[in-house]
């Protein structure tokens, strides 16, 4: 499955939209699909959107599973840094509460 984030918008900022996409991602992963996150054309992604969309996935599946069953494509450096920050922050929270 390919999720083309530019179909949602070039500036992604709301938790509500991130939650909506997260549900699609989790559904695909549960069905055994490999998910490609195509970020072509996405110029800006807020921490709120990234956390809701990607960070909270780690509350459902572990990081290794996510890495093995998905990939990020065509993200600019700002979007990549935002996603990376959110995933690291969520992992730290998970490890601290374990």
- Topology as H/E string? EEHEEHHEH
Overall number of domains: 1
* Residue share in helix: 40-55%
Low-confidence spans: pLDDT under 50, at least 5 residues?
none
Helix/strand/pairing category: alpha/beta
Shape designation: globular
Quick recap:
The protein has about 100 residues and is α/β, with parallel strands linked by helices. It has 4 helices and 5 strands; from the N terminus they run E-E-H-E-E-H-H-E-H.
Fill in the keyword field for this structure.
single chain, 98 residues, alpha/beta, three-stranded parallel beta sheet, two-stranded parallel sheet, 52% helix
Task: Describe this structure as you would to a colleague.
This protein has 98 residues and is α/β, with parallel strands linked by helices. Helix content is 52%, strand content 15%. The strands form two sheets. Strands 1-3-5 form a three-stranded parallel β-sheet. The longest helix has 21 residues, at 77-97.
Protein topology:
Blueprint: E1 2-4, E2 11-12, H1 15-30, E3 35-38, E4 44-45, H2 47-53, H3 63-69, E5 70-73, H4 77-97
Parallel strand pairs: 1-3, 2-4, 3-5
């Amino acid at each position: 499955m390919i999720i083309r984030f530019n179909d949602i918008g070039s500036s992604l900022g709301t938790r509500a939209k991130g939650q909506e996409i997260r549900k699609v991602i989790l559904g695909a992963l549960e069905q055994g699909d490999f998910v490609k996150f195509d970020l072509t054309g996405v110029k800006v992604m807020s921490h709120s959107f990234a956390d809701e969309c990607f960070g909270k996935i780690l509350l459902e599946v572990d990081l290794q599973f996510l890495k093995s069953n998905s990939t990020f494509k065509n993200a600019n450096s700002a979007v990549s840094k935002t996603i990376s920050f959110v995933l690291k922050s969520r992992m730290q929270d998970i490890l601290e509460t374990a």
